[in-house]
Design brief:
Elements: E1 2-4, E2 13-15, H1 18-21, H2 29-49, H3 62-67, H4 84-89, H5 102-105, H6 119-122, H7 133-146, H8 154-167, E3 170-173, E4 176-178, H9 180-189
Antiparallel strand pairs: 1-2, 3-4
């Protein structure tokens, strides 16, 4: 048997006779039981201490969402984003007219399927709104205008759509690209 030794700088290994190990190789049931119990308890503690990343509301910008860093400087941002269903059923809460054309707020290409819809129409699933991207962008925009998602500004939402429309992806940071389902996934996580 060989054991690594920090004292032997030339090879790092020191030959140790098996007899010198004594009971080190012998099985001790009580030590094994303690080790198993310790692993079980530590698993419970880690489960209680871990914070669900995707099950709760995410109050972070797109780039902050990627970092997974739970720490913030100063007070925690208040996150009150609402779902498309909320906005569809609470027209009295809208900060803008419900018949606002999507293309009057978001810059759309002439061939964009979104140019034909109003904000309210997009809150109902449309066949050509793949992945419900337009639906969630409308909800995110309304949340931002209401001030319910201070970490996600109107400008960011507009540029998110513009970049996706022109490139087919949105890059929250230089090395990451989000497709439409990725964008929807993030926007859903910002809604209470």
């Amino acid at each position: 048997m060989t054991i690594k030794s920090s004292q032997d700088q030339t090879s790092g290994d020191v030959a140790v006779p098996d007899a010198a190990l004594g009971d080190a190789n012998a099985t001790n049931p009580s030590r094994r039981h303690f080790a198993k119990t310790g692993l079980g308890i530590s698993g419970v503690i880690l489960s209680l201490a871990s914070r669900p990343v995707l099950g709760n509301v995410v109050c972070k910008s797109p780039s902050g969402f990627l970092s997974g860093n739970a720490s913030t400087h100063g007070p925690q941002p208040v996150c009150q984003g609402r779902s498309p269903g909320y906005w569809k059923n609470h027209e009295g809460s809208w900060p803008i007219a419900t018949d606002t054309q999507f293309s009057s707020v978001f810059t759309t290409s002439q061939t964009s399927v979104y140019a034909q819809y109003t904000f309210l129409q997009l809150l109902t699933p449309q066949q050509d709104d793949k992945h419900n991207l337009g639906m969630h962008l409308v909800a995110a925009y309304l949340n931002a205008v209401k001030g319910w998602t201070p970490f996600l500004t109107v400008e960011t939402i507009l540029s998110m759509f513009a970049e996706w429309q022109s490139k087919g992806v949105f890059s929250p940071i230089a090395t990451v690209q989000w497709s439409a389902p990725d964008i929807v996934y993030y926007l859903k996580a910002t809604q209470a």
